[in-house]
Amino acid sequence: MGYGEPQTISFTSTAPTSATTGHTYTPVASSTSGLPVTLTIAPSSTTVCSIASDGVVTFTTAGTCTIDANQPGNSTYGPASQVTQAITVSTPPVTSPTTLLAQTISFTSTAPTSATTGHTYTPVASSTSGLPVTLTIAPSSTTVCSIASDGVVTFTTAGTCTIDANQPGNSTYGPASQVTQAITVSTPPVTSPTTTPVPVPTPVHSSASSVSTPSTTPSSSEPVTLKTGPPVAPAQSTPLVPIGLGLSASGVVGIAAYELRRRRAS
To answer: What is the three-class DSSP state of 258?
Structure first.
């Protein structure tokens, strides 16, 4: 009994010339008999590539991917000779990152030159890229000042308040170099209370009271009787001794009494 009519196989798809790992390829082969061709991966290439049930070949590692094509024949056609298709697989070159554009940051607000505790300041910074700038308080200054969600900085204690400005960049611009703004914070001076001068009292002078004899105006209907008595010495004025010259009030009175007795004795 003969082997039947001969048949041959050929690949009708063109193998990729620059296959790289991660890529795919769909091989196609046909036979002169018109019978379907079976495609498989050669045993020596199973670590380099694989073929799915839908006939798609995936390249997994660098090396040679060999695809075998077979047609076993039937009652009319004998088996066809195996045909192979070899594909060289390489690792794709590492793509250099796209060169990012440079950007810089600058503060557009002027830092206060006489900042004191309890006061506030709103810093503003911008970048040449137009991207938003993030403002934070440097770790070394967290006890001196703080920044709120609205960007307002509050000075809490004396020291140096350092504000950091950063812009991380994006797919077009690279990260900007950090820029800082340092502010010296001091404690406000304590205001002394206003001193009101105390009025100095006017010195009080002591003098002997003049002795006066009350006069009685007799009525026209009563006789006037004059009574005589011992002569009365004229009143002597007590010397004026100002208080506040190192003498107490009792001392001043004592001096005045002494002077009065001395004058009477003379």
So the answer is: helix
Q: With contact defined as beta carbons under 8 Å apart, do 105 and 164 qualify?
A: no
Q: In Å, what is the CA distance from 112 to each residue of 3, 184, 186, 201? A: 102, 9, 12, 51
Per-residue model confidence as pLDDT tens digits over 121-172: 999 999 999 999 999 999 999 999 999 999 999 999 999 999 999 999 999 9
Distance between the two ends of the chain, CA-based, in angstroms? Answer: 188
SS3 call for 13: coil
Report the distance separating Cα 48 and Cα 13, nearest Å.
Answer: 20
Q: How far is CA 239 from the centre of its chain?
A: 80
- Can you tell me the distance from the alpha carbon of 60 to that of 54, in angstroms, rounded to the nearest whole number? 17
232, two tokens: 């009365």
Scored b (16 or more CB within 10 A) or e, 201-225 reads eeeeeeeeeeeeeeeeeeeeeeeee
Q: 108 CB contacts (<8 Å, ≥6 apart)? A: 124, 125, 126
Residues contacting residue 208 through CB under 8 Å, at least 6 positions apart: 235, 236, 237, 238, 256, 260
pLDDT digits (tens, 9 = 90+) for 54-75: 999 999 999 999 999 999 999 9
